[in-house]
Amino acid sequence: MSSAEVVAPVFDIETGLQELVARGYQFVHPADERGEVLAVVGVRVHDDVVDVVRLNAEDDVVAIRMPGTEENIFEPERWLWRRRGEGAQVLTEILSLPDAC
């Protein structure tokens, strides 16, 4: 998929998250000092890449595919694909990516 292509949302956020889990994403929920969840972060390592999805809010989701050689997956120096935006749109796009790059 080129960076110019936009995929129409297929998944709502709940269904998209269920699909991420089904594909092997592992999730963490970082919290602040009061215990309030700051984000929901999913990570999937496969083939020679790492996919990271961070849900800050329904309208603020970031998804990144990076080479498996990146040392810091939360602040990668290089990435192969990246999207930020509405949750349903971003989840649909990352779920549309082929497994191998």
Number of helices: 2
Q: Give the CA-CA distance, first to last residue.
A: 10 Å
> What is the string of SSEs from the N terminus onward?
HEEEEEH
Shape summary: globular
Mean pLDDT: 91
Structural descriptors:
2 helices, 5-stranded antiparallel sheet, 20% helix, 101 residues, alpha+beta
Explain what the structure shows.
The protein has 101 residues and is of the alpha+beta class. Helix content is 20%, strand content 32%. It has a 5-stranded antiparallel β-sheet with strand order 1-2-3-4-5, with helices on one face. It is globular, with a radius of gyration of 13 Å. It has one domain (13-96).
Question: Which SSEs are present, and which pair or pack?
Answer:
Elements lengths: L12 H10 L3 E3 L11 E7 L2 E9 L2 E8 L13 E5 L1 H10 L5
Antiparallel strand pairs: 1-2, 2-3, 3-4, 4-5
Helix pairs in contact: 1-2
In short:
By secondary structure, the chain is an alpha+beta fold. Helices cover 20% and strands 32% of the residues.
